[in-house]
Amino acid sequence: MNQTSEKGAGLLAGVRVVDVTHMLAGPYCTWVLASLGAEVIKVERPGSGDFTRGLAPFHEGESVYFMSVNRGKQSLTLDLKDPRGKDAFLKLAATSDILVENNRAGVMDRLGLGWDDLHAHNPRLIYASISGFGQDGPYRNRPAFDAIAQALSGMMSITGEEGGPPCRVGASIGDIGASLFGAVGILAALQKRQSTGKGTRIDVAMLDCQLALMENAVARYATLGLEPRALGSRHPLVVPFQAFPTADRPIAVCVDTDAQWQRLCAVLGTPELLSDPRFAQGNARSAHHGELEPLLIAAFAKHGREHWLAVLEAADVPASPINSVAEALDDPQVRHRGMVREVPHGSGRRFVGLPITSGDGAPERPAPLLGEQAGDVLAGLGYDAKAIAAMRRDGVI
Question: pLDDT digit string (tens) for 180-189?
C-alpha cells in the first residue's frame, strides 16, 4: 500500500486511489472508499472538471450533487492529451493502490491509460472499471445512465402500482448498485493482493448489477418461468407485507411468520381470519392475497396511523410510518445513528453519512474545488515549483 498517505484515519488509511470518474456511478464508489479513510485523488479536466460541478441546485455557488458524492477527495486537474499531463498521471498511478474509472469501454485504452498500460507500469495497481454494459459484449460501447439500466434490466417492469405504467425506482439504484458492487470487488482485490502482490482488473456493469439486485425476480422466472410484475408496495411472496391506508395516514406492515399473523389478527380484532383455510398459513395467504387485502384494509380503516403503530409495536408486529424524506431525517433512530452529517466548509452543508460504523472512522471532509490540490499533489510526485507553474500557465493543470 502507498506509504505516503498513512497519516489519515479510517479502515483504508494508507490506501491511495486515483479517481477518474464523473457523474454518479464512479464518484459514489470512490466516495465510499474516501469515507473509509482512503486518500482519493480525483483527476478532472482543466477548466470544466466533472460535469456535475455545473448541475443545479447550488449551495453557496457549488453543486449539491457534486458536493454530496465527492466529499473527502482531492482534486487534480490534468490534460491527459498533453504529454506532461499524461506523464504526471503515470507518476500518480505508479504511487497508487487503486484506479477507478467509469468511462465508456475503450476510452482509457485510447488514452494509453488502460489496464494493460497501467498494469505494466504498476503491477500492484487494482484497476476498476464501472460502465453501463461492461468491457465486452455487443453493448460495450453504448452510453448508459441510471434509467437505461433500470429499464433494460426489467427493474422498471416490476416497480410501480399493479396494472400501471413502468416506473423508475426513486433513487438512482442503477448507478449506486454498480458503485457498491465496484467497492466490494476493489476490497476483495486488495485482500488478494496481500498474498499475490499483484493487482486485479475489476469489470463492473450497471446492467449486470441491476440483475443481481433483482435476485428473487430473476430466480422465479429463470427457474420456474413465473414472470414478475409490478405489485405496488406489496411483496410477491409474503402476505401481508405492504402499505395499508388507515383512517388518516398510511403505514407499512410486514408479517413474515405465522406467529406474527396470529398477533396481527388479535390486534385487528379479526380472529375469524385465523380459522379461514384461505389464510391459515403463509403460502395460502399469498395465493389468496386478492381476497385478504380488502378485509385488512377495512380493519385498518377503523383507527388512525398513531393508534396502529402503537398497538402493533406492543404486539411485536413489524410496522412503520411511511415517512417523507424530511420525516425520515428527523426520525429519532436516524438522528441517534448520526446518518446526516454536517460537513465543514461553508454553512449548513448536510449530507448522508456512510452507513458503516467502526471504531476507526475517517473524519468528514468537504468536496474539493476544481484543481484545489493540484499543486500539492504534483509536489508530492516530485515536481518543483517552476514545473508546476509552467503546467498551470499552459493549461495542463
Answer: 999 999 999 9
- Name the catalytic one among 235, 288, 303, 307: 235
Report angle CA 42, 45, 51 to the nearest 5 degrees. Answer: 85
Global model pTM greater than 0.85 = yes
Tens digits of per-residue pLDDT, 252-261? Answer: 999 999 999 9
Rounded to an integer, the average pLDDT of 345-373 is 91
Give the other-Cβ count within 10 Å of 180's Cβ.
17
- Could you tell me where the DSSP H helices lie in the chain? 25-35, 64-69, 83-94, 107-110, 115-121, 146-153, 173-196, 206-213, 215-224, 258-268, 282-287, 289-300, 305-314, 325-329, 332-337, 374-380, 385-393
| DSSP strands (E only) in 314-377 | 319-321, 340-342, 350-352
Cell reading at 114: 488502460
pLDDT tens for residues 114-163?
A: 999 999 999 999 999 999 999 999 999 999 999 999 999 999 999 999 99
Distance (Å) of CA 312 to CA 233, 255, 307, 350: 19, 11, 9, 33
Three-class SS state of 79: coil
235 is catalytic: yes
Rg (CA), the chain: 25
> Distance from first CA to last CA of the chain, Å, rounded?
27
The span from the CA of 289 to the CA of 212, in Å, is 27
